[in-house]
Amino acid sequence: MASQEIEALSGALARLPGLGPRSARRAVLWLIKRRETALPQLLNALTQVQELLVECEVCGNVDTANPCGICTDPRRDQRSICVVEEVADLWALDRARLFTGKYHVLGGRLSALEGVRPEDLTIGQLLDRVGHGGIDEVVLAMNATLEGQTTAHYIAERLEDAPVRVTQLAHGLPVGGELDYLDEGTLAQALRARRPVG
Ligand SMILES: [Zn+2]
């Protein structure tokens, strides 16, 4: 029987995406063996994340500043917004500076199955940003899943009367493809070949 402390930590780690109970327990044992080296590093990193990271009120990115570094960067194209499902997608696109404009993180995708409605996402905030003017292009960079594409169509419809060009990542993304898992070449190609919605 493991101690209560080990059970508690294993339980907390097992809730992380991609980790099950077995790998969580292995991670705990690994950390116990390295309580002088790796454990303090992990504790420090976790504290930093808790104390310093905030969600950007404008775009939904996670950063040490609010508004985030991307929103306040004057070198970026102020006139285009790339809409993504999750922060991980933003980071994937921004890793190689594939997109030089601003971003908007929806916080998920529409899903009848999971009961995710438009008001559960930041679609209203996106419409507000576009409504304030000064935006030429909205790039819909949803994942190539059914739910991602449903979300893209919904947003395109809501933007139909706005004076902006609405484009979408080129197909050719693997079906069911999540942006976060694509290599930079594939992402760059999908972005370059983006096309108008409709
Ligand atoms: Zn931001």
UniProtKB/TrEMBL annotation:
One of its GO terms (biological process) is DNA recombination. Keywords: DNA damage, DNA recombination, DNA repair, Metal-binding, Zinc, Zinc-finger. The keyword Zinc-finger applies. Belongs to the RecR family. One of its GO terms (molecular function) is zinc ion binding. Pfam families: RecR_C, RecR_HhH, RecR_ZnF, Toprim_4. It comes from Novosphingobium subterraneum. This is Recombination protein RecR.
